[in-house]
DNA sequence: GCAACTTCTGAGCAGCCTCTGAATGGGCGC
DNA sequence: GCGCCCATTCAGAGGCTGCTCAGAAGTTGC
């Protein structure tokens, strides 16, 4: 009860300095997407509210005083830039993660994100959004009390998220982007069996239409690189999914 | 917790002698530009306020007692020089960084800035503004506890910001202005993967409309000069961006 | 006003990454 | 022990990313 834990992951939750849950506001005019996002963020143990347009976003923000805002650039009433400015005048400390279409006018985004803010292009994977948000909050000084900082460790497997570097037993392991994200998801849930459906939902973009077969494929890629010639850390649970756990700890 | 760190970078933050964050006032009548600037400065771990005209600038300055002011020369009510004079009577210690159009009366600027202040011509890059501000504050005796002064080091790569000189393993490396600024940004964030979008935001002018392709190009220029025939320090992380790190450091 | 340099665009190319399909292997229920 | 089904792996197509070259346009300094 002392170290707060997020509901979903086995890791200590990322909380505010006073121990209360991180507060996030999700702003998107697509209710389905907002629902998926807020579900995933609640799973992280965070307090989430949603808004469908710029006006209610500002209202909600005033009331909730969120630590971070996930903000679609294209809104029915205004654009994200105006909302950002209002938010910052109301609450200068808030971090903003923008959601934008890949081919959207990137130069405008470029200006917006110049500060501590960040953006993700649609379609994104939930892991990516969560990772970016965690990065933003960490950099804003939110992570303080519990930090392993930006480093994930399972046994002798270490992932440095900022440097995007993975080592096993001190040896460098080179991973492709998807492999990296898959491993990150596994490592953020050590000793927990993750179903292929869960993995697909989290690691692949929400509009991915493919089969669960890709997960198997990428697990096999990971094994070749991470477990190669060593005591395996990635295990199959037949009919259920996959787990990662330290070799000794069993 | 002893050495204060800036929010964004892993570097020690530049703070006031008493350890509190540097305080900066941004004065520009373009709210978008003011927003981008203050975002970037907050990212450095500084305390920022903004003002849109000369009158509120003076009011804000009286209240905040900033260490530095970023001041647009063209303001709706007065010009920057009048503001400067008022500021100096209120608060003689303050440093001023002027923002000015390229073809503005440069001799007037030159006269004013003789007194230790500095100026940057629009359109500027955020890295440039930040570097100038750091320089001003350092020269005003703000740098105190930390570091290295005007020298950045990553492995055997050394950058002297004031002399605008770069050496690798003692050998001089000659760089064009853009190359220099790109390398500075990389070296201020060692071991951290920087996306092309991030790099564009920071190193190129805020009005640059071009593509991320230029970043690749300039990275290749840098490699030819910095890594030429040596163990490479600049690494590509496919799908993520670029990192600089010392060769030995793994 | 000329020369040297700097910056940026476009095109081509090489290699990597992702995903599909199919063949093979292995565990588990019956 | 048999057969089914789940899981693993291979091979290859296609797309995409990043690197480099060449050249045009703009800028600076003499």
Automatic annotation (TrEMBL), chains A, B:
Residues that bear 4-aspartylphosphate: 72
Molecular functions per Gene Ontology: phosphorelay response regulator activity; transcription cis-regulatory region binding
InterPro entries with a match to the protein in the record: CheY-like_superfamily, OmpR/PhoB-type_DNA-bd, Sig_transdc_resp-reg_receiver, WalR-like, WH-like_DNA-bd_sf
Alphabetized SUPFAM superfamilies for the sequence: CheY-like
Ranges where the Response regulatory domain occurs: 23-137
CDD domains: trans_reg_C
Domain OmpR/PhoB-type: 149-246
GO CC aspect terms: cytosol; protein-DNA complex
Keywords: DNA-binding, Phosphoprotein, Transcription, Transcription regulation, Two-component regulatory system
Ribosomal protein listed as a keyword: no
BP terms from Gene Ontology: regulation of DNA-templated transcription
Annotated DNA-binding residue span(s): 149-246
PROSITE patterns: OMPR_PHOB, RESPONSE_REGULATORY
Highest taxon, organism lineage: Bacteria
Stored PANTHER family: REGULATOR OF RPOS, TRANSCRIPTIONAL REGULATORY PROTEIN TCRX-RELATED
Protein name as it appears in the record: DNA-binding response regulator
